Amino acid sequence: MFSALRDVFRLPDLKSRILFVLGILLVFRLGAHIPTPGVDAKAMASLFEQGGVLNLFDLFAGGALRRFSIFALGVTPYINASIVMQLLAVVIPAVEKMQKEGEEGRRKIVQYTRISTILFSAIQAVGMVLWLRSMNVIYVGGISVFVAIVTLVAGSIAVMWLGEMISDHGIGNGISLLIFAGIVARIPESITRTFKLLRTGELNLITLLLALIIMVIVIAGCILLQEGQRRLPVQYAKRVVGTKVYGGQTTFIPLRVNSAGVIPIIFASSVLLFPSTIARFFSGGFAQAISKLLSPSSPLYMVLYVLLIIFFTYFYTAVVFNPADVANNLKKYGGFIPGIRPGRPTADYIEKVLSRVTLGGAVFLAAIAILPSLLTQMLGITTFYFGGTAVLIVVGVALETVQQIEAQLLMRHYEGLVRRKGKAGGILRL
Hints:
This protein has 18 helices and 5 strands. By secondary structure, it is mostly helical. It has one domain (2-426): Orthogonal Bundle (Preprotein translocase SecY subunit), CATH 1.10.3370. The chain has a 3-stranded antiparallel β-sheet with strand order 4-1-5. A two-stranded antiparallel ribbon has the order 2-3. β2 (239-241) and β3 form a beta hairpin. The radius of gyration is 24 Å and the shape is globular. 35% of the residues are buried. The model is unreliable at 421-430 (pLDDT under 50). It holds the Pfam family SecY.
């Protein structure tokens, strides 16, 4: 392990990419501690003591919302904009055509996503600031409100830019890494608070040990979910070209149990957070009812959360994996699945198997997402947010980043970060 890490920093290009990512994450964490002008910090802290959906907002903001810093909106506006663009690609042919135009189409979609991010951040900033003003958290005054809105929108644009810089010049997905950094940064504080309660007797040692056991089981389940796959055997026919024989080998098509990674968790959480933001425009019973219904502990939130995770798992799997293209490529190069005719029957078979595998992965993903939250509520541990959302994001982003680093090392004839035994690259599969 340590020799592999040493090999990482022996490669100038990979070393510079990793150091660049660390530098961007440092800037992101510094921005999370710069307060927004005109906000009463003590009044803001008292709001979070009441719990509710604000804690889930703060999870994606990496603690910036609790401090109401310039990055208080976090990556939520960018995620909402990405969801809208991907949904539009399904229902609007022009956007779908744009996706298939290669690099030029990708640039157009990125530009539209940026514009949508500004619109979403403006809506969320106005709603949040007006709500906080009604709660006497922001100092009364038109200038203070305007400055707070502009600051939040500018901070959201800066977070989007930081994420894109990581994706373009670093390692891994930039937005996912920003969320990962925000969650991990809260761990030391949570551990300290937990041990304080344990020392004062407010927390039972047996309860804490039970929570740790649950945490280990959930992390193991997340790893199995991320690494598991169904392999479809593929046989290539022999072809004689001149005096040489090509093909004849047997390989497989890997269908991942969770092809969407942590995207369904992030998308589902963001969709459920957006109505609460809109409700901040209104005062009285309506806003309170919406906030109560969409509280992370409410039954309605749990049901909608599970359904959205399953939906986005299927949706994102359909975006990243096209059975018809795989079947056409197999037919083009003389490959076939034993017992299945090439062409359309192969595409139908792959789609059928993929649908079943994805269903199991989506249900397991939803179970891991809500089970820890339910158990920790039953155990009464409030010092840290040990939800399936946080665990899945941390484990998923960590695995994806390590795999990308391993791919860079293998391209340069180095071994991966973790030595594993077995075939097919030595990666653990189900």
